[in-house]
User: What shape does this take?
Amino acid sequence: MRIIVPPIKSQGIKTKLVPWIQALVPDVSGKWIEPFLGTGVVAFNSGFRKALLNDTNPHVICFYQGVKNREITPQGVRAYLEKEGEQLKKAPEQGYAHFRAIRDRFNVTHDPLDFLFLSRAGFNGMMRFNRNGEWNIPFCKKPARFSRSYITKIVNQVHDVACLIQPSWKFTVGNFEATIEQAEKDDVIYCDPPYIGRYVDYYGGWTEESERKLFDLLSTTPAKFILSTWHHNDFRRNPFIDSLWSRFNLVTRDHFYHSGGKIENRQSIVEALAFNFETNVGQHNYGLCLKPEQLLLCENGAESITQQ
Ligand SMILES: C[S@@+](CC[C@H](N)C(=O)[O-])C[C@H]1O[C@@H](n2cnc3c(N)ncnc32)[C@H](O)[C@@H]1O
Assistant: This one.
């Protein structure tokens, strides 16, 4: 499976988990609904003709809306990155002065191309906003960041998503509730909410109340759903697995989040998918192998999935 990688980056990006998630997606005739779109990597690999895609972060939605409307094109992105990349290379403080200039401009104008620049020139591909909604990630300290090959890579990513976004895909900015409430029987909802205690920012505050509200909505939706959450790490277990999500089917799998400034956010975690439909996980995940205390369904030999 060729994974479509989006042009926008974020620390919670699910690129490596896409095959695992997609293997579980049921065959439905309705829409793909994603209330927590983030970079869009799961939606872009969903293959659905109809989609409802939402996030509280207006910048990701504005960027993809711009691609859909053809206001943002691969050619336009190339011209923009070549120009700004040249200035970055020559700017004082090893490029930092120009990074700051783009950041300050973005914080005023919210230009989607400046947003792309910050996403691709920020430290470790992270995205975070302060309480005023301003970009809050420092420069990656590479003045020659936008090399010819890097620009081509980004331009190709924009091209890929431009080809995938269908005219009937709807993008909205808002809270997850209104998006989930629109789901109908033949739709599938994929939810990837912020994980409590990790990467809190202006657009991503997440509380116990939010988790319970999400649980209530998913418990009563007529649609099928898949929820991404964390199961446990080396130190503790996600309490909401026992109190909420274990009422649904669960599969788990080891995962390592590569980016993140905080050392605790770089550790490996066991990811979980909770879902409200029957499935043959074995059939979806290339057979069974045994590990201590767990039945693992191995994917590509190296990766694993556990049905609980
Ligand atoms: C973990 S990220 C999603 C990552 C995405 N699956 C990806 O692979 O890039 C969670 C997203 O939920 C958004 N978000 C946070 N609170 C929200 C809310 N109450 N309603 C809708 N979206 C929210 C954040 O802005 C963030 O983009």
In short: The two ends are 26 Å apart (CA to CA). The chain has two domains: 15-56+174-307, 68-163. Residues 286-308 have pLDDT under 50 and may be disordered.
